[in-house]
Amino acid sequence: MKYLAILVLCTMSFISYADCGASDVSITSLYQYHDGTIFVNLDKSTNCSCAFPQRIAFNTNDKGYDFIKSMLLTAYATSKKIDVASNSDQCEIHGNTARLTYLFLKP
């Protein structure tokens, strides 16, 4: 019972900061669009209700994303699994892709 409570709390913490996302995914490709948007294509779909659920994105002008860029490149180069999430399910990148607001590089 104690383990079930811990599992529920861990799941709730993921849900509380994210409207949508995906866990244990690999990056299949990364590319930058002419407007500075960096698209991250994943091997599995997110649970975001966007036209392109297998990708998540952010803009190079977004503040604080140097760390995210470094971690994405590390994950891609080493084939490490990641967790990604967005705190908005509005598909605000080009009207068809969720904005990346959380990244966890798996050990």
Task: Walk me through the structure.
The chain is α+β, with helices and mostly antiparallel strands. It has a single domain, classed as OB fold (Dihydrolipoamide Acetyltransferase, E2P) (Beta Barrel), CATH 2.40.50. The protein has 2 helices and 7 strands, in the order H-E-E-E-E-H-E-E-E. It has a 4-stranded mixed sheet, with helices on one face. A 3-stranded antiparallel sheet has the order 1-5-7, with helices on one face. Strand 2 and strand 3 form a beta hairpin.
Would you summarize the structure shown here?
The chain is of the alpha+beta class and 107 residues long. Helix content is 27%, strand content 32%.
CATH class: Mainly Beta
Q: Count the DSSP helices.
A: 2
Order of helices and strands: HEEEEHEEE
Mean pLDDT: 87
Strand content: 25-35%
Give the end-to-end Cα distance, rounded to a whole number of Å: 28 Å
Total number of β-strand segments? Answer: 7
Fold topology:
Elements: H1 2-17, E1 20-25, E2 27-32, E3 37-42, E4 55-59, H2 66-78, E5 82-86, E6 98-99, E7 102-105
Parallel strand pairs: 4-6
Antiparallel strand pairs: 1-5, 2-3, 3-4, 5-7
